[in-house]
UniProtKB/TrEMBL annotation:
This is LRC43 protein. One of its GO terms (cellular component) is cytoplasm. Keywords: Leucine-rich repeat, Repeat. SUPFAM superfamilies: Outer arm dynein light chain 1 (SSF52075). The keyword Repeat applies.
Length: 329
């Protein structure tokens, strides 16, 4: 489950272990008699109000030293390369204000969660503890269905690239109302069953949508649904069968006039002028593609013109050859 992967992720961060958290290395900074605000660090950590450095008690480390241990790439306490900026921010908080990330408090400060390639199959209710979460990245996992009731309502970015999502019905039951980016590339979505879930009725604030490398085939049907997304500015459809249609890009550019980027390519005024009016010519949309195969050279078979010519009336046996050529796409 996602909750299990998240707890394992927190364990790897070591928010309660040196040089983070509270311990003998910084005990005096968080004693009640020296920190009346209950763990909130004073101005200019490690310095007094006059700007003079405070004396660090014997056996303790200054905040500057502890922070350096986190940031130095050669330090044994440095984060692994696959960690996100949010992870680094959490560890810095665990040095400066460890009470804010102690126990369940960490759920109140986390705004971004990145769990990539961890074999997650289920997005469970435990995610609702993250009441301030705005960005959720779950790429390269094994999620086939995702229930919207288990997603925080504060979510603005949901990235599910490289999973096994084949149905959006559960996701669209109660989708996060403020979602601005939905990433569904490299999944198993197909037309026309899933087209109906890609409308403003479910995603009124969607700005960016990635549907690349799925199995969408109905260009007309998909565009009729996407046209309701009035805030949509970025769309990725490359890798779908419908992208093979000759008028694919022009039809989309003219049908969705507010698009700024299509398939990672900027849509400029010249292109809009070039394809102006194409959206009204649906007869040009053909749900088929033509593939031309040219065979340059074949080796290992007899050359037909080299056959011996038989005389008229000859009773000699005739040898014939037949070949079967198979193309796999």
């Amino acid at each position: 489950s996602l909750s299990a992967a998240f707890l394992e992720h927190l364990r790897r961060l070591g928010l309660q272990d040196f040089p983070c958290g509270r311990g003998s290395w910084n005990k005096s900074r968080f004693d009640a008699h020296t920190s009346p605000r209950g763990g909130q660090p004073g101005p200019g950590l490690g310095t007094d109000p006059a700007g003079q450095e405070e004396d660090v008690p014997l056996g303790e480390e200054s905040p500057e030293v502890l922070m350096e241990l986190l940031s130095d790439q050669h330090s044994p306490w440095a984060l692994p390369p696959d960690c996100s900026p949010q992870d680094q921010h959490l560890r810095e908080m665990a040095v400066l204000t460890p009470e804010l990330v102690r126990g369940p408090n960490v759920f109140q400060v986390l705004r971004s969660l990145r769990i990539v390639g961890k074999g997650v199959e289920e997005v469970d209710k435990g995610l609702l503890q993250l009441q301030q979460l705005e960005e959720l990245i779950l790429s390269a996992n094994e999620i086939s269905r995702i229930t919207s009731a288990n997603l925080p309502r504060t979510l603005k970015v949901l990235e599910l690239c490289g999973n096994a999502v084949a149905d959006l019905q559960d996701l669209c039951a109660q989708p996060p109302p403020e979602l601005q980016h939905l990433g569904l590339g490299y999944n198993r979505l197909c037309s026309p069953l899933q087209d109906k879930y890609l409308t403003a009725a479910f995603w009124p604030n969607l700005v960016s949508l990635d549907l690349s490398f799925n199995n969408f085939t109905d260009l007309l049907g998909l565009v009729s649904q996407l046209s309701s997304l009035q805030k949509l500015r970025i769309l990725v459809l490359q890798g779908n069968p419908l992208a093979l249609i000759p008028t694919y890009r022009g039809f989309l550019v003219d049908s969705l006039p507010k698009l700024s980027i299509l398939d990672d390519i900027h849509v400029g005024p010249d292109e809009r002028q070039q394809f102006h009016g194409l959206a009204r010519q649906s007869e040009l949309i053909r749900n088929e593609a033509r593939v031309v195969v040219s065979v340059g050279e074949i080796k290992g078979v007899p050359y037909p013109s080299a056959r011996q010519q038989l005389e008229v009336g000859s009773k000699a046996p005739v040898i014939t050859y037949s070949y079967c050529v198979t193309y796999e796409f």
